[in-house]
Amino acid sequence: MGLTKTEIFTEEQNRLAVMLKAIAHPARIAILQEIIKSNTCICGDLVDELGLAQPTISQHLKELKNAGLIQGTIEGVSVCYCINPPVWNELREQMSGFFAAYDLKATCC
Amino acid sequence: MGLTKTEIFTEEQNRLAVMLKAIAHPARIAILQEIIKSNTCICGDLVDELGLAQPTISQHLKELKNAGLIQGTIEGVSVCYCINPPVWNELREQMSGFFAAYDLKATCC
DNA sequence: ATGATTAATCGTAATATTGCAATATAAAGT
DNA sequence: ACTTTATATTGCAATATTACGATTAATCAT
C-alpha cells in the first residue's frame, strides 16, 4: 500500500505519468518556462527568478532531469540546463494523441 | 514545510499544475483514455477494466472531478462520467502554449 | 594553496498520495 | 419493507513529496 501499481498499466501509460508528474508542480512549470524563454540555458538565475531556496531549485531540476525532460551541461562553475528534445517530443506526441482522441467525440450525459 | 508555496507562482502556473497533477498517475491516465474511448460514459466498468479495487477507482475519479477534468451525472443507480469540455480545453491550450514556445528555439549547451 | 562562486547532497520536518478493507449511502427492483 | 446493485466515504498503513538549513564537492581566479 502507498505504492503505485505500475505493473497493472502499459509502458506508455507509466511513461506518460512519469513525465506529467515531473511537470505537475508550479515551481517546475516556472522552471521549464524560464528555460524555454531564455533560449540560452540558465541555472542559478532560477534561484533569483523564483523565490525558492537553492537546494529546492536544485531538487526540482533533478526531478526534471530524472524524467528526461531537461539536460544539464557543466559549463565551468555553473550548470547549463536546457530542454531534452527526444523526451520533450515524446511528451508532445502523447498529449497530442490524448487531445486528438477527444476531439471527435460529443459530450455525453 | 512540506507544503507547496503557491503564493509565489502565478494563477496560471498553479492551475496548470493542478490539472497536470490530476492526470499524472497511470490509473487516472487509463481512466481518462477509457472515458474518451467509450464515447458513452462509464463508471463501474472501470473497476473491471483496470485491476484496482472499487474504492481506489472511486478516489481517482474524485480527484479528476476535483481538478475539473471530468464530470459525473447520476444515472439511476450508477454514475456516468465524461470529459468536462471547458477545463479540458483550458488544459489543451496551456499545453499548446508550452509546446509552441519551444518550437522556435534551437538546442543550447 | 587559498578563497570565492556555484551547484549538489544530506538530513529532517511537515504534509500529501496511494491503495484497500470495512462501512455507509442511495436508487431500483421485488 | 427488503434485497440487490452501484458508488462514495472512512480509517489506516506504507510510502512519496516539498522545502530548507547545513554541508560537501567542484571549478575558477588570485
Report on the structure:
Chain A is mainly alpha-helical. Chain A has one domain (10-97): Arc Repressor Mutant, subunit A. Helix content of chain A is 57%, strand content 11%. Chain A is built from five helices and two strands. Chain A has helices spanning 11-23, 26-37, 45-49, 54-66, 85-103, and strands at residues 70-75, 78-83. Chain A has a two-stranded antiparallel sheet. In chain A, strand 1 (70-75) and strand 2 form a beta hairpin. The longest helix of chain A has 19 residues, at 85-103. Chain A starts with 10 loop residues before the first helix and ends in a 6-residue tail after the last helix. The mean pLDDT of chain A is 92. Chains A and B meet through helix 1, helix 2, strand 1, strand 2 and helix 5 of A and helix 1, helix 2, strand 1, strand 2 and helix 5 of B. The first copy, chain A, binds a DNA duplex (30 and 30 nucleotides) through helix 4.
